[in-house]
Design a protein that fits this description.
- The protein has 395 residues and is an alpha/beta fold.
- The protein has helices at residues 19-33, 48-53, 57-69, 82-87, 97-105, 172-189, 205-219, 221-227, 236-245, 256-269, 297-304, 314-331, 334-352, 358-363, 374-389, and strands at 6-7, 12-16, 37-38, 41-45, 71-74, 108-111, 116-120, 129-133, 137-143, 152-159, 163-167, 192-197, 231-235, 250-254, 277-281, 287-291.
- It has three domains: 7-106 and 282-395, Isopropylmalate Dehydrogenase (3-Layer(aba) Sandwich), CATH 3.40.718.10; 112-124 and 171-259; 129-167, no CATH class.
- The strands form four sheets. Strands 4-2-5-16-15-6-7-14-12-13 form a ten-stranded mixed sheet, with helices on both faces. It has a two-stranded parallel sheet with strand order 1-3.
- Strand 6 (108-111) and strand 7 form a beta hairpin.
- The chain binds NADP nicotinamide-adenine-dinucleotide phosphate (NAP) and magnesium ion.
- Magnesium ion (MG) is lined by residues 260, 264.
C-alpha cells in the first residue's frame, strides 16, 4: 500500500537549538514528522554558535517569521552565562532567545501538565535595570512625563554603604493582554481561573495586576457564567499552598517570575520536566510551541563521551504536535490535526505500555527496572505511529 504524506497548506517556523535537545530535535523531525507530513519548514537555526556568528540577528529574524506565519516550534537553546561564553568562545553573552521572542510577540506562556500555568511573558525582572551601589549615597526613581507636565520622584534608599538596586516595570497594555489571554484560554478550556500576587506588600505594582484582572474578568462575567467557571484572586503564598493540595483542573495565571519558578515546580512535582510543553500565545494570535525544559546539558556530555543516554523526548514531540495541530486548525486541514493527535496517542501509549526513558522508569509505580535509550524511545513511538497511519515498515 502506498502512503502519501499529509500536505500542510502553510509553513511552520522551525527553530533548532542546542545540546541534547538538538539531538532529539533531529530524531523527532526525521523519524516522527517528515515521513508523514509534507510541510515547508521555515528554518532558523538558533544553535549558539550561529547566534554568535549572526550577532543574534537570527533570533530576531525567527521572531519576525513567527509573526508572519503565525505558528512556530522551537528547540531548547542555551542562554549563555560566563561559563558558556568561554566554552563556545562567544563574542558576548547573548540574551535568552526565549526572552527575545517573548518580548517581540508580547505573549503569554501557557504550560500544561495537570494544572495549566498562564505565565505573563513581558517585563518585571526579565526587563529590569540593575545597579551595584559602591558606597554611601541616595538612589531615587524619577518619572519625567513626555508632555512636560510635573514629574514625580521617590527615594528608593539612602545607602549607608555598599548595596544593590533594581528597577522593574510593566505596562498597562501588556498586563491587560495577559489578563485577556488567560481569560480566553480559561473560557476555551472551561477551566476555573486563579490569579495571585503579593499585593499586600506591593500595593501599587502588584495591585495594578490584581485590578486589571478584576476589570477584565468583570467585563466577561456573562461568559464565565455561561462556561460554568469561576475566577478567584488570592495571595501568592496562599495559592502555592492550595496548589500543593489540589488535584488540578484549573488555569493558574502567574506573573512572569512566579510563572518561571512555579512551572518547574509543577512539572517535576507531577512527573518529569520531560513531560511539559510550553506555548507562547501573542495577543494577536501567533503561537510558538516548545518543550518547557532546557537543553539537558548533563545528558549531552554523556552523549559526547559516547555513553548511551535516556532523555525523554515527550515534551519536544508535543511541541511539534501542538504546532502541527495549530497549523491545521488555522489552515482548515483537519487531516493535519488528526495526524498530530495520532502522534500524541503513539507517545502516550508507548509510555503507558512500559517503554519509558529513565526519568519515568524511576517514578513508575512499581518502579521499572528497564528503560529505553533516547533513540529507542523515539523508534518505539515511530513504530506505533506507522501502524496507526497504515504505513509499511519501510518509512
Ligand atoms: P534542563 O535542561 O532543564 O535539565 C535539568 C535536568 O532536568 C537534567 O539534567 C535532567 O536531570 C532533567 N531533565 C530535563 N529535561 C529532561 C528530559 N527531557 N528528559 C530527562 N530528564 C530531563 O536544565 P539545565 O541543564 O539546567 O540547563 C541547560 C541549558 O538549558 C542552560 O544553558 C539553559 O540556558 C538552557 N535552558 C533553555 C530553556 C529553553 O530554551 N526553553 C529553558 C531552560 C533552560 P538528570 O540529569 O537528573 O537526568
Ligand atoms: Mg525556568
Amino acid at each position: 500500500m502506498s502512503f502519501s504524506r499529509i500536505a500542510a497548506k502553510n509553513p511552520i517556523v522551525e527553530m533548532d537549538g542546542d545540546e541534547m535537545t538538538r539531538i532529539i530535535w533531529a530524531l523527532v523531525k526525521e523519524r516522527l514528522v517528515l515521513p508523514f507530513v509534507d510541510i515547508r519548514l521555515e528554518a532558523y537555526d538558533l544553535h549558539l554558535p550561529n547566534r554568535d556568528r549572526t550577532d543574534d540577528k537570527i533570533t530576531l529574524d525567527a521572531a519576525e517569521a513567527i509573526k508572519k506565519y503565525g505558528v512556530g516550534v522551537k528547540c531548547a537553546t542555551i542562554t549563555p552565562d560566563a561559563a558558556r561564553v568561554k566554552e563556545y568562545n562567544l563574542k558576548k553573552p547573548w540574551p535568552s532567545p526565549n526572552g527575545t521572542i517573548r518580548a517581540i510577540l508580547d505573549g503569554t506562556v501557557f504550560r500544561k501538565p495537570i494544572i495549566t500555568i498562564g505565565r505573563h511573558a513581558y517585563g518585571d525582572v526579565y526587563r529590569d535595570v540593575e545597579m551595584k551601589i559602591p558606597g554611601p549615597g541616595k538612589v531615587e526613581m524619577t518619572y519625567t512625563p513626555a508632555d512636560g507636565g510635573p514629574g514625580q520622584t521617590v527615594l528608593v534608599h539612602d545607602f549607608k554603604g555598599e548595596g544593590v538596586v533594581k528597577g522593574e516595570h510593566n505596562t498597562e497594555s501588556s498586563i491587560r493582554s495577559f489578563a485577556r489571554a488567560c481569560i480566553q484560554f480559561a473560557l476555551a478550556e472551561k477551566e476555573d481561573l486563579w490569579f495571585a500576587t503579593k499585593d499586600t506588600i506591593s500595593k501599587t505594582y502588584h495591585a495594578a495586576f490584581k485590578n486589571v484582572f478584576r476589570e477584565e474578568v468583570d467585563a466577561r462575567k456573562a461568559d464565565f457564567e455561561k462556561a460554568g467557571i469561576t475566577y478567584q484572586y488570592m495571595l501568592i503564598d496562599d495559592a502555592v499552598a492550595r496548589v500543593m493540595r489540589s488535584s488540578g483542573g484549573f488555569l493558574w495565571a502567574l506573573r512572569n517570575y512566579d510563572g518561571d519558578v512555579m512551572s518547574d515546580m509543577l512539572a517535576s512535582g507531577y512527573g518529569s520536566l520531560g513531560l511539559m510543553t510550553s506555548v507562547l500565545v501573542s495577543p494577536d494570535g501567533k503561537f510558538e510551541y516548545e518543550a518547557a525544559h532546557g537543553t539537558v546539558q548533563r545528558h549531552f556530555y554523556q552523549h559526547l563521551k559516547g555513553e548511551p543516554t535516556s532523555t525523554n523526548s515527550t515534551a519536544t514531540i508535543f511541541a511539534w504536535t501542538g504546532a502541527l495541530a495549530k497549523r491545521g486548525e488555522l489552515d482548515g486541514t483537519p487531516e493535519l490535526v488528526q495526524f498530530a493527535k495520532r502522534l500524541e496517542e503513539s507517545g502516550i501509549e508507548t509510555i503507558e505500555t512500559g517503554t519509558v526513558t529513565k526519568d519515568l522508569a524511576a517514578i513508575s509505580v512499581p518502579p521499572l527496572r528497564d528503560h529505553a535509550t533516547t533513540q529507542g524511545f523515539i523508534e518505539a513511538i515511530a513504530e506505533r505511529l506507522r501502524v496507526k497511519m497504515g504505513v509499511g515498515a519501510g518509512v
